[in-house]
Amino acid sequence: MTPPNASITVTVNGEPRALDAGITVGALLQSLDLAGKRLAVERNGEIVPRATHPHAVLVEGDRIEIVVAVGGG
Amino acid sequence: MSNDILKIGAREFSSRLLVGTGKYRDFDETREAVDASGAEIITVAIRRTNIGQEPGQPSLLDVLPPDRYTLLPNTAGCYTADDAVRTLRLARELLDGHNLVKLEVLGDADTLFPDMTQTLAAAETLVRDGFDVMVYCSDDPIMAKRLEEVGCVAVMPLASLIGSGMGILNPWNLRLIIDNAKVPVIVDAGVGTASDAAIAMELGCDGVLMNTAIAKAQNPVLMASAMKKGVEAGREAFLAGRMPRKLYSGAPSSPTTGLITG
């Protein structure tokens, strides 16, 4: 019997999401179909460098921003 | 004119027209207009990704690849220095360390007039953090000088309000800024048509940045081409040095002798 995964709540682009405890930024991007896209991630106001996405483990209450470039002046 | 180089920080450009990528009908129109403008520097905005959108959808950077253009991420929509700094740190991460940015901190949602106190604070932080900052500002010569002094690589005063198309409302302030500046002065905002761009360049501006004047023309691609020519014509006229203004001269262009009526 595997115990059910504990869940954490993380705010992603302003929306709260229930995620598996221990999930990394890389795994989050994968689950959102964003892996490999040109984007940038910020956690609690600090940049999460691309190279660290596979190791950056999210914790309860994290505020994540995922941004892209769009048309603008 | 091939040796007339615009130098911004350590970067060199041959086009003096900088264009935005907002307000176009679609990516095809964006790309065609950018191409017709001849611009090498194009601004982009940084926004939350639309989670759940179709994964196959093209993104702006597929259409305008960073290896072909110098992207200038902006802080449009930011009302505080902190938000602007955060946005540009995200942009630098997004663009693999690219550090040339456009700072703008707005003070009012109706006029989109810049908040110069917040702008100056953000500029200081960004310069310390290693950014090359091109800064949107009011046409206040003192403020433009302060921004240069804190290390901005270009000052970009408004000609009139963002998106207004009202043209060059205070050429004399622009002249004061140009005469005092040791960094490029680029008119950013307010240009409505090609003659406005030409006037800015004739005043001695080093470049013109625009978005709405092209994107909201009836034919954006044709207007992009017109703006390219307006900027080039204005630049050449500035370099050529215009004749002095006289109310009348009494000196016709044709010979005054040899007239058959003599």
Structure overview:
The complex is a heterodimer of chains A (73) and B (262). Chain A has 1 helix and 5 strands. Chain A has 73 residues and is mainly beta. Chain A has a single domain, classed as Ubiquitin-like (UB roll). In chain A, a hairpin with a 2-residue loop joins β1 and β2. Chain A starts with 6 loop residues before the first strand and ends with a strand. In chain B, a hairpin with a 2-residue loop joins β1 and β2. In chain B, α3 crosses α4. The N and C termini of chain B lie far apart (45 Å). The model of chain B has no long low-confidence stretch (mean pLDDT 95). Chains A and B meet through β3 and β5 of A and β4 and α3 of B.
What characteristic shape of chain B results from the CA principal axes?
Answer: globular
Major beta sheet, strand line-up of chain B:
3-10-9
Q: Any idea how many domains of chain A? A: 1
Distance between the termini of chain B: 45 Å
Pfam family, one (chain A): ThiS
InterPro entries (chain A): Beta-grasp_dom_sf (IPR012675), Mopterin_synth/thiamin_S_b (IPR016155), Thi_S (IPR010035), ThiS/MoaD-like (IPR003749)
Organism (chain A): Methyloversatilis universalis (strain ATCC BAA-1314 / DSM 25237 / JCM 13912 / CCUG 52030 / FAM5)
Protein name (chain A): Thiamine biosynthesis protein ThiS
